[in-house]
Design brief:
Elements: H1 4-25, H2 49-71, H3 77-85, H4 91-104, H5 109-181, H6 187-196, H7 201-224, H8 232-262
């Protein structure tokens, strides 16, 4: 019969052996020996070159289209107007659709509005012009959003992107309205830019309706009275254009002063 001392000695050895095995089998920390509080290696920086190239190609495409359509006049507006006139009762809807696409391709809006007044008169023509202006804003903003929003946000960085998102939520609609009042700015180009910065399409549509209404009347009325520019309608159109231009210039100056004060 073994001595009790041997039992006690063997029990201690067994416990030590068991604890040793347990100690060896314990795995390292989640980072395999590194500081548990560390977050690991930083993710690699994303190259901005593809985004810059994508935006450059998009801008180059818009400039080429502007040169071909607005400067070289490769699209025959008279032929478009004649085709629409032959559609009969659906001519107003056909002209809205055609003008919306053509203006998004940088056909000058005043020419399209004047054609609307010539075809449909000052009243119906104004609504046709307003519908086409709204369609142009939505089309251009959707294309700009699709082609440039991701790249623009990648180039300006998350901090500036968040600031722009905040400004869009607060003043996006009225930015579209104000741009429509400022003379000399292409509505299509501005809509592409708004879309690239992520302006919602509903803001583009509502802002275009509000901001384009005065100029829609002006250019449509001038087109309707092209045979008699001394008519009261022509004088009313000129008066509305002057008031709109003054309001737009004042709004642009005020916005510039605010920007200077913030800088």
């Amino acid at each position: 019969m073994p001595h009790p001392y041997h039992w006690h000695h063997q029990s201690q050895q067994h416990q030590i052996s068991r604890y040793s095995v347990r100690w060896v089998s314990v795995p390292d920390g989640p980072d395999h020996g590194t500081d548990p509080g560390s977050e690991g290696p930083a993710p690699p920086a994303v190259s901005r070159r593809p985004h810059a190239l994508r935006l450059a190609l998009f801008v180059a495409f818009l400039l080429v289209m502007f040169y071909l359509v607005a400067v070289q006049r490769v699209i025959d507006i008279e032929a478009v107007r004649g085709t629409v006139a032959r559609t009969g009762p659906v001519a107003p809807l056909a002209y809205v659709a055609a003008s919306a696409v053509l203006a998004a391709l940088f056909v000058p809006g005043p020419l399209l509005a004047a054609g609307s007044g010539l075809l449909f008169g000052p009243l119906l023509g104004t609504f046709v012009t307003l519908g086409s202006a709204t369609g142009t804003a939505v089309i251009a903003a959707a294309v700009g959003r699709r082609a440039g929003r991701e790249s623009a946000r990648a180039l300006i960085g998350p901090q500036w992107a968040a600031r722009i998102d905040t400004q869009i939520q607060r003043r996006g609609l009225w930015a579209v309205v104000g741009q429509r009042f400022i003379p000399g700015i292409s509505d299509a180009l501005a809509s592409y830019t708004f879309g690239a910065f992520g302006l919602p399409l509903w803001q583009m549509a509502v802002g275009a309706v509000i901001g384009s209404a005065p100029r829609a009347f002006v250019y449509t009325a001038l087109g309707a009275s092209i045979s008699d520019l001394s008519s009261p309608l022509a004088y009313a159109a000129v008066g509305v254009w002057c008031v709109t231009a003054i309001i737009g210039a004042f709004a642009a100056h005020r916005s510039y002063r605010r920007w200077q004060a913030r800088g």
